[in-house]
Structure formats: C-alpha cells, structure tokens
Write a structure and sequence with these properties.
alpha/beta; 2 domains; TIM Barrel
Length: 271
C-alpha cells in the first residue's frame, strides 16, 4: 500500500527560520479556490488574502469598500485550495481602527470562519492597542507600514512614503514597536529601498517588501498584476511574469468564432 507524502505546512516559525538563514520569502495574493490552488502548487511561501480584492475582484477604485464578510468569503475559498502555504488575511477598513474590541472580534471571525493562519493590519502606534488585543487571543499578526492603502484619502496619493527624515524615523519606530509587541512579520510598501534595508536590519522579524527594493527578507505582489490580468496598473516595482489578459481574450475570441461558425462542438465533443 502506497503512503502519500506528508506536506509540511509553512508556519510563522518557518518564516522566522528563513530570515535567520538568509532565505528569501515569497508571497502573493489570492482570492479564490482555483487560483490559490495553483499558487500553492507553484511553491509560494505565503498567500495573502488581500483587501486588494476590492480592486481586482470587485472593480472598486480603492480597498475601502470591501467588507469583513466579503474578506471571509474570499479567505474560505483560498484556505480550501491551500495545502502548504501560510494564509494571511487582511482586516478590512473599518474592522479594527479605533476600537480594539471590534478588532479582536473581526480577527476571531476571520480565524474561526475561514480557517486562515494569521491576520494583517495597516498602521503603527495608532493601532497598537488593537494589535495587542488580537495577539493576546493567540492570533498571529502581520504588520503593514509605509504606503497603507486604507489611508489613501489621508495621504491623497499613492506616491512613495517616508522620503522625508521625520516620516522615515516614525516608520522605523513603528517597526520596532510592532516587533516588540509580538507581530511575527511586517510588510513595507512603496518606501525608499535604503529605508527598507534599515528596517529589515533593525528588527529580527521578517520584513516583506512591495516597491521597497531587494534588501528585505521577502517580496509580495498582487497576483493579478504579476500575471498580467490587470493592464492599467503599471508601477515601477511591478514585474509581469505573464500576459494573461491577452491570452484569455484570444481564447475567448477563438471560442466565439468556433461557436459562430458551428465548429464547436464537433462530433467528438457530443454524446
């Protein structure tokens, strides 16, 4: 009788070990069962069920409209498709800011209803109380500093953050605080590469960058961006590894053509 090979799941401890060894961490977003299965099979370390689903799945201009119920729905599908990767879920806008009790309730719902492994929150000292409350319940928390898309209306732009010395120092202070209270990892988004390098060197926990240069402990991209499904979003930091927009469009064109010309289905494609 053959014995199936046991898949070793990636945990928060695994990520810490990777940083300690100097091994880079790979992270991508996913929002549904089918693509999560493929991403997991491709060998990814971390899958983020990002609130970017608001943009790429629902067509909203920002991440703000997506709800906690919708995030849980996306996370449920992803978790069912994953055998190895660590699954982290964004707490959406309005589910944790300014109310630590609500933050804990939101995080518990995500963990209980989706089966995910951790949550991610945007911000530093202003959400410290919420993070501490979630951590005391035994829920792993990933931090997020730099460009925090849920605060886009405060920033007024998606431009690079922390170029000025004062903001850079606040970011370093926030990173130190997030490590001190117990976050297992940290995302830094769209900050100068030299600052990201300082952040990674200044904390023991893994620092994962997006638009933050190569001198961090790992990288994250939005799946639909790196696969070329989205076309309009073209920041400098994005590398497209495929052009699925054109491939899918051409496949649809061919299907339409075959149906119109009565080439599909043929005799071998019917009962």
């Amino acid at each position: 009788m053959s014995v199936s090979k046991q898949v070793k799941r990636i945990t928060t401890h695994t990520l810490q070990s990777m940083k300690d060894k100097g091994e880079k961490i790979s992270m991508l977003t996913a929002y549904d069962y089918s693509l999560a299965s493929i991403v997991d099979d491709g060998g990814i370390d971390v899958i983020l069920v990002g609130d970017s689903a608001s943009n790429v799945m629902a067509g909203h201009e920002t991440t703000l409209p997506i709800t906690l119920d919708q995030m849980i729905y996306h996370a449920q599908g992803v978790v069912r498709g994953v055998k190895k990767a660590l699954v982290v879920v964004d707490l959406p806008f309005g589910s944790y800011q300014g109310n630590s009790r609500l933050a804990l309730e939101s995080a518990i719902r995500i963990m209980k209803e989706s089966g995910a492994h951790a949550v991610k929150l945007e911000g530093g000292f202003e959400i410290k109380e919420s993070i501490i409350r979630i951590l005391t319940a035994g829920i792993p928390v990933m931090g997020h500093l730099g460009l925090t898309p849920q605060s886009i209306y405060k920033f007024g732009t998606y431009t690079v953050r922390a170029k000025e010395e004062a903001e850079a120092q606040r970011l370093l202070d926030d990173a130190a605080m997030l490590e001190e209270i117990g976050c297992f990892a940290l995302v830094v988004e769209k900050i100068p590469a030299n600052l990201a390098k300082k952040v990674s060197a200044s904390v023991k926990i893994p620092v994962i960058g997006i638009g933050a240069g190569a001198d961090v402990d790992g990288q994250v991209l939005v799946l639909h961006d790196m696969l070329g499904i989205t076309q309009e979003f073209q920041p400098r930091f994005l590398r497209r590894y495929a052009n699925l927009y054109d491939e899918i469009r051409l496949a649809v064109n061919k299907y339409v053509e075959d149906v119109k010309h009565k080439d599909f289905p043929n005799e071998n494609e019917q009962y």
